[in-house]
Amino acid sequence: MFALTFDDGPGPSTEALLEVLRAAKTRATFFLLGRNVEEAPWCGDPARARSLALRAKREGHVLGNHSYSHLRPDRWREFAADVRRGEAVVRGLLRSKAPGAFRLPYGIRRGQHRFALGSIGERLDPRLPVIASLGIGHQHWTSDFDDWTLRPGDGAKLATKMIAHVAKCETAGLDAVLDLHDSGTGSSFGYERPATVEGVRLFLEEAGRRGWKSFTVPR
Ligand SMILES: [Zn+2]
């Protein structure tokens, strides 16, 4: 089995992605970037961003928090407030008091140096003790695919990698959790992810042929 997860959204490719998922009757998890909903720098229209996120929810997808601003790991001192701010955005969309699932920006990184908490988590990503103190956990993946670096024509290449990964997990007796991106953080890679949309479409076709089933995280 496999779970599709999308970080950094919403963005200009989210709508096309929702169409692909709907056509394949597949539900996924969207770890939203609070800023891409509330300020929507990718389109300048927060109402559009919000309605895309609500459409994902309405169509049965899981909405999670990916923090508000996607701070670099070395800004861990500011991280708790940024996680809470992103959480508030997701809570507002879900109309729920529950915090929802959380994914760390950049995933888990190795700690680079000592930091002010002394020995706690010294060799770990310093954000892990921060989220532990907030009482939340991180939803990791079995593979990411650097899909934010791909060019528009690279969808088939991405699908091939995704298929190979799920097959490898199957051999190892594991279900696969695939980390992909339907938008960006404002970096030089921009916000458009057409290769991801096409890659997911081709992947789901092949998954159907092979009889692979999807699930959503958290389970
Ligand atoms: Zn991210």
Could you list some keywords that capture this structure?
219 residues, alpha/beta, 5-stranded parallel beta sheet, 7 helices, globular, binds zinc ion
Give the overall shape, derived from the CA principal axes: globular
Q: Roughly how many Å is the radius of gyration? A: 17 Å
Strand order of the largest sheet: 3-2-1-5-4
Report the sheet-strand fraction. Answer: 5-15%
Work out the helicity level: 25-40%
Helix and strand composition category = alpha/beta
Largest sheet: 5 strands, parallel
* Cofactors, ions, other ligands: zinc ion
> What distance lies between the first and last C-alpha atoms, to the nearest angstrom?
12 Å
Q: Let me know the number of strands.
A: 5
| Arithmetic mean pLDDT | 94
Succession of helices and strands: EHEHHEHHEHEH
- Number of helices, counting only DSSP H or I runs of 4 residues or more: 7
Low-confidence regions: none
